[in-house]
Fold this protein.
Amino acid sequence: MNYNSKLIGKYYSTIFEKKVINNGMTFDEVVENIREEIGEEFSEYDIIKGILGYYLEKNVNPMDIFIDDDIFYYFRDDLPPVLNEIGFHDKFNVFEGCDYYDIYFDPKGDIFLSVDSWEDFKELFRKDEQYTIENVTSEDWFEMFNFSYIDINEFIDDIDVKSLLVIKEHIIDNYLGHELDEGGVITVEMLNDEDTLKDMIRNESSLEDLKHDLERFYGDAYNVTAEGELFENFLNELKDFFGVSDISWDDRNQLKIKITSTYKNYSLDYLDEFLYLPCEDHSRFLDVISQLLNDTYNKLSLGVNLDYYYPDGNKVDKNLNEIIVDNLY
């Protein structure tokens, strides 16, 4: 401590410490009394620093001596900088009394953030992305792209050999012997040639229902691919932000993230920025993080411009062929 702090500490220990311990004086009463005694020679900041620094040198948590709520109520402008300056946070936990309903401690002392669903994390992301996140994390079907206009010519060449065999079997089971538009009927021999098979799917009116099914499958594949890619971006952004390799479901059917190493950092950042203990403002720690991201950090992002976003074409083709194999009977 500097000279002024030591003088204050000495003065406090000589005049006030016994009164505090025996009579339960609050911190603001002590500071006010010292100011009345010594006049303007020392600032309020000096007095706070001197008293707290005195206890820190004794390795005693000053928050156990005084009523901590009173300290933050009266001195929230000066207190956080003093705590940082005297190294309080290296020795003691000012957030010990904080209790959030989405935080739990395991028997090892590790700290976990626990939420009901992926959707809970959407508030950590940019506002213009939250609707998309709400949908890609939901169990409901998300039709991000409307394919009511799709033409089979746009993707028929992306259908692989395995899927063509499934289509062939489907035609044999459902359309064999049907009349062709230009005469004749559908035969097995016609279906053995890939080009003839594709041309029939494109043009024959008797296969119109099959063509519509394939067009619908393509729309499904496109949306499934987009949803998967955006969810992967969402998940990777969360992992990077929290510094974890995994976010998993626990035995209480809650998503959990281990934040042992970052819980204190987020809490300190909040205290320094807003001069309140975060649990004075919030009952969820997720809200603490969200406000930090909104006011002092940057909101998380999916990393794509959604106005111009299109999924990976190779992944779309892969999903299309899987959907054909799994759904065409």
Summary: The mean pLDDT is 92. The chain has two domains: 3-91, 98-329. The chain has 17 helices and four strands. The longest strand covers residues 111-115.
